[in-house]
């Protein structure tokens, strides 16, 4: 008999894919646990497949699902993940900086401070920008986030190389560590539910042309409908509204809800190439190459703590690549 823990793991993953976070899912899991214990059956028999369970939970939250993209995320989720990543980097800088400096303070230079701030901005824009912009219904702006991030990376490199490297002060390593841990903690707390407001993407604009433009943007950006197909769906909506003689905001009170319903009826939504498995594999492999070069260089120069950290990072990247390569055929074989 399959254990409830196995079912719970799959159910939490499926709910996470639909934007239902760990804390929000916990009371639902506890109710399912009680029902399973009372039934005495296998959890799959008593509760159904985890995917169906998660789909039923999501279906009971139509307004919430309409605000989320195909990855179950809102724009603020992408921003929160990016800020969390910067917090993790801050922890590493605090620890490594203290080790290199041989004390509890980290020296600060104009080049280092400017470069770190600019590189952090580049990471924030490149990490959160494309996904957040698409989830907000601005797909045409999403690729520009990569351009801005690339420019910031070049500026960061310029700052590290050309700006003065004289010490201008020191930063307490423990203060940086505490601030970074606080950022990580704040970004992992369960967020407050956001109430819809008139005029946002839930209701849509009152002007008909702006409404249809917004519908297409949501279909393409938030719900990964191909642009050509999104144009066809918008044309169908135009014809329906014209036949009724009403305004689109009156015929469809929830613009995001209508876009979500249209997207749910579409069989194939691949999304942009840079969010696909191949792009993720390439990025992961690229990061692995960078770590490998730095690790070899550290080993040659006898910087053993960097070598050890690099080897551990390469092992983690190797496991990540293995999991992604294994997941690709599984997703391809999954019935739609």
UniProtKB/TrEMBL annotation:
- Region forming the signal peptide: none
Q: Which residues form a coiled coil?
A: none
Q: Domain of life, per the record?
A: Bacteria
Question: Mind telling me which residue stretches traverse the membrane in this protein?
Answer: 78-100, 106-129, 141-163, 169-188, 279-296, 302-321
Key words of the record: Membrane, Transmembrane, Transmembrane helix
What is this protein identified as?
Putative membrane protein
